[in-house]
Amino acid sequence: MSTEVISQIDVDRTRGDFSYPEQHTFDAGTGLTHGTVDYIADVKQEPDWIREFRHKALDVFLSKPMPTHWASKDLENIVFDNIRYYLANSQRPTRSWDEVPDDVKRTFERLGIPEQERKFLAGVEAQFDSEAVYSNMKKALGDEGVIFVGSTEGLKEHPEIFKKWFGKVIPTGDNKFSALNSAVFSGGSFIYVPPGVKVKHPLQAYFRINAENFGQFERTLIIADEGSEVMYMEGCTAPKFETATLHSAVVELVAMKGAKIQYVTVQNWSANVFNLVTKRAIAHEEAEVKWIDCNIGSRLTMKYPGVVLKGRKARGEVLSIALANNGQHQDTGAKMIHAADETTSNVISKSISIGHGRSTYRGQVHIPRHLKGCKNNTECDALLINSTSRTDTYPAITVRGSRNSVQHEASVSQVSAEQIFYMQQRGLSEAQAMSLSVNGFVNDLVREFPMEYSVELKRLIDLEMEGSVG
After folding, report:
1. Which end of the chain is more exposed for a tag (fewer CB within 10 A), N or C?
2. pLDDT above 50 (res 331)
3. What average pLDDT is seen over the chain?
4. For residue 396, how many C-alpha atoms fall within 13 Å in the half-sphere facing its CB?
């Protein structure tokens, strides 16, 4: 990338760092009790089985201790009694952009959501705090039987599909934060793609936290029926508040026989957000699930997308990029559980640590003894920008039996002073040279991102690198 190209990249430093005054019709207040759960269920007019599901989940959450094997020191800073668990203006998103409230419309217009929809998306959902405010899909997809709505609408309007898979991929008791989400979940997407339908353009959701001391708990369920294909993209932002903000989502994917799902995430949370997310997929026979995950920002991210390879010749892939700057810890990785013969998994992780930032790769690959013909490839590459940054790698690969193959590769490197000096002699500033080095380090993965997101990702990296030198 030339100096001329770099100079043309116009990064809006305030793109995500703004908020509007709160005017919520529904507010559950602070703190988490069974009364909070009833308030959410009442407001959303949910059936009894969901209310019961929520109450049981709250009991599980309260009974589970805070994780000690993760970044427990950071987690101790979360005060659950200070968090607001439900804030919303409406219970049903509009299909017309003109009908979205003005302050919400201004928020998403500043983030470029309507513009992106017009350009290349097949459908868009925009969530503001606890609920979707806008949801729309191209008519041609609806005519093919594709469903793309918020989780609230999915539950009410398509219960026969929703109930079959809801909570089946990720049980309530999977971990403390999946239990928390199960108790207070709101918003998120519900997608169903009928057999043989290939959605040619991406579906996108955008999650925006506007309120202070808030917790966002969206729940996403995507079902790709036999032989279907879909790509889903999500973006996340929040303004910079002094107080801690919690984002604890659950994402469940189901790829039936021969189906393909790509799930792309580019998050740019502000540095006060605790981002504690559980994401998992089930891949049936000859199905393929690919997670493409980019984590920039947040105070602490703990996210390990996984695939349970349930059917013969199923394939799972996780491609992840994490960038940790001062005061940030990116604890990310992947889980691949092989549960059928001839299944294949691929994990490629790239992390960059800047200043006093810390990145951690935490992975799990499991192939039991009775399987044959299974393959896994795991690559973990870390780049340290300076001597005060830190990276850790914790791969857990369990292979039983002799009829499977696994390979693991890991590397840690520092930005070469000679390389930076060479580029500076060609007219680049130190920050530009550093940015080129980092973009080169992740370039092979960035090529896997959709064009709109790959450009945005490079801009975000450029912005992060500007303050990292000098």
Report:
1. C
2. yes
3. 83
4. 10
CA 37/CA 180 separation, integer angstroms? 11
How big is the chain, counted in residues?
470
Q: Which residue has the tokens 């989780």?
A: 151
Cα distance between residue 262 and residue 267, in whole Å: 16
Give the pLDDT confidence of 372-409 residue by residue, as tens digits.
Answer: 999 999 999 999 988 899 999 999 999 988 899 999 99
* Dist. CA 53–CA 163, nearest whole Å: 12
Asked if 179 and 172 count as a contact pair (C-beta separation under 8 A), the reply is: yes
CB distance 423 to 436 below 8 Å: yes
Q: Are residues 330 and 302 in contact, defined by beta-carbon separation less than 8 angstroms?
A: no
What's the rounded Cα separation, in Å, for the pair 59 and 190?
26
d(CA 385, CA 354): 5
Q: Where are the alpha helices (DSSP H) in 76-147?
A: 102-110, 113-120, 139-143
Question: What tokens appear for 211 in the block?
Answer: 């309120």
What token pair was written down for 385?
A: 């920008």
pLDDT score, position 306: 97
The more confident residue out of 118 and 48 is 48
Query: Parallel, antiparallel, or unpaired for β 215-216 and 219-224?
Result: unpaired
Q: Bridge partners of 275? A: 247, 301
For 139-162, letters b (16+ CB in 10 Å) and e give eebeeeebbbbbbbbbbbeeeebb
Contact 130, 88 (CB under 8 A): yes
Burial class (CB in 10 A: 0-12, 13-18, 19+), 368: middle
Other beta carbons within 10 angstroms of residue 323's beta carbon come to 27
The pLDDT of residue 467 is above 80:
no
Residue 417 near residue 387 (C-beta atoms within 8 A): no
Stretch 439-466: mean pLDDT, rounded? 77
Provide the 8-state DSSP code for 30.
B
Return the pLDDT at 460.
75
CA gyration radius, the chain: 22
Q: How far apart are CA 160 and CA 304, in angstroms?
A: 29
Beta bridge pairs of residue 331: 302, 360
Residue environment code for 65-74, b if the CB has 16+ CB neighbours within 10 A, otherwise e: eeeeebbeeb
Place of tokens 């350009």: 119
Do the Cβ atoms of 153 and 231 come closer than 8 Å?
no
**Least confident residue range of 86-95, 309-318, 391-400:** 86-95
Packing angle of the helix pair 430-446, 417-425 (nearest 10 deg): 110
Contact 338, 314 (CB under 8 A): no
Map tokens 């393959």 to a residue: 375
